Amino acid sequence: MGVRVEGEVVKLDRGFPLVRTADGRQFRSEHATNLVKSTKGTASVGTEAGESGRAVIGDRVQLLLPNDHDKAIIERILPRTRELVRKDPTERAVPQVLAANFDRVIIAQALGEVNMRRLERELVLACETGAAVTVVLTKADLAESEQEVASIRSQVQALAGPDTETLVISADAPASVEAVRELLAEGTTTVLVGRSGVGKSSLINLLCGEDVQETGDVRAVDGKGRHTTVSREMVPVPGGGRVVDMPGVRGLGLWEADAGIEAAFSDIAVIAEGCRFRDCKHEKEPGCAVRAAVEAGEVDPARFASYRGLKAETSKMKERREQARWRRKR
Ligand code: GDP
Ligand code: ZN
C-alpha cells in the first residue's frame, strides 16, 4: 500500500499532472483508473469527487503515494469552489473544465486590437465562475496617443460594466504592472485568459521579475504556425498570490452561462426587470422594456445583438444536453 496525502495540481502539460503537497513536495501523478472511467457525466462546483474524471489545474486532490511506484495516484478530486468551464471544442455537447479553485479571472486583450465580440464572451465565461473579474489591456506603448488609450479604455470599461475594473498596462511602464500585482493578494489564485499573443506570458514575467514563462519571441512554433506551448502552470508571484496562464485556449464556446450573461450584461438585465413578462425573450413580446430601450437609443443595438446571440447559444446548448440525456436514458 502506501500513504495518503492531499495536494494541489500545480502543473499540467503533456505528461502527468504535477501535484504539490502542503509541505512543498511535488509528485508526478496519474489518475486512478476508476476516476478516469467515471461516466457520471458533468462536473460542477461543489459536486463530489470523481464526477469530472480528470483533475485540472488548481484542483485539490487526494493522492496515494504507493511504496513500490515512482508515481503518485490521484484517487479523488475534492469538491471545487469554482471552475472555469467552456463547451468542449469538439462537437459533443459536453463541458470542459479549464481551471478550478481560483479567486480572480484576468482577461487580457491587446489595447490596439481589442476584439469586442471575444471580450463579451470572455466576460460571460469569467463572470459565470463567480470569481472577481478584471480586464487588462496590454501593449499600451503601441498606441498612437494618450487620447487613443483613454478612448479604447472607456469603450472597454463600458462593455465590462461597473463591477469589472479595466487596467491598461505596458511592458515598459513598471507602475502599470504594479497595479496588476496589487490585484494578486497573498494566498489567492488568479487565472489569466486571453488569445495567444496578447502578452500574457510577458505580464507573468514582469510580475515575477524574471523569465518564468516563454514568450512569443522565443516560443517554438509548429508547422502550422502555432505556438506549441500548452502547459498550464501555477506561478507564485513575489509579493502576491499565484497566477495561472491558460495558453492554447482558442474557442470559447459557452456552456452553462445564464448567470454569466446576466452579470456581463447587467445593464440589460436591469432593464429586463421592466418587461411585462418575466420570461420575456425580448423578441416580439408586448411590453418589452429592453426593445424599447434599444429603440430609444439607451442600449447599443450591437450590444443587444450580442446579448441575444449569447443567450441563443446557451439555450441551444441546453437543448442539446437535454437531448443527450434523453438518449442516455433510453
Ligand atoms: P502570450 O501568447 O499571451 O503569452 O503573449 P506573449 O507574452 O508571448 O507576447 C506576445 C508578443 O507581444 C511578444 O513578442 C512580446 O514581446 C510582445 N509584448 C508583450 N507585452 C508587450 C508590451 O507591453 N508592449 C509591446 N510593444 N509588446 C509586448
Ligand atoms: Zn423583454
The radius of gyration computed from the alpha-carbon positions, rounded to a whole number of angstroms, is 21 Å
Poorly predicted spans = 47-51, 222-226
Please indicate the percent range of residues in DSSP E strands (runs of 2 or more).
15-25%
Strand order of the largest sheet: 1-2-3-5-4
Range of helix content? 25-40%
| Overall average pLDDT | 87
Q: How many structural domains are formed by the residues?
A: 3
At the first level of CATH, what is the class of the largest domain?
Alpha Beta
Order of helices and strands: EEEHEEEEEHEHEHEHEEHHHH
Which cofactors or ions or other ligands sit in this model?
Answer: guanosine-5'-diphosphate, zinc ion
Strand element count:
13
Helix-strand makeup class: alpha/beta
Q: Can you tell me the overall shape? A: flat
Biggest sheet, open or closed, and with what strands and sense? 5 strands, mixed, barrel
Provide the CATH architecture of the largest domain.
3-Layer(aba) Sandwich
Describe the structure.
This protein is α/β, with parallel strands linked by helices and 330 residues long. The protein is built from 9 helices and 13 strands. Strands 1-2-3-5-4 form a 5-stranded mixed beta barrel. A two-stranded antiparallel sheet has the order 6-7. Helix 2 packs across helix 6 and helix 6 crosses helix 7. About 3% of the residues have low confidence. The protein binds guanosine-5'-diphosphate and zinc ion (ZN). Guanosine-5'-diphosphate binds next to helix 5.
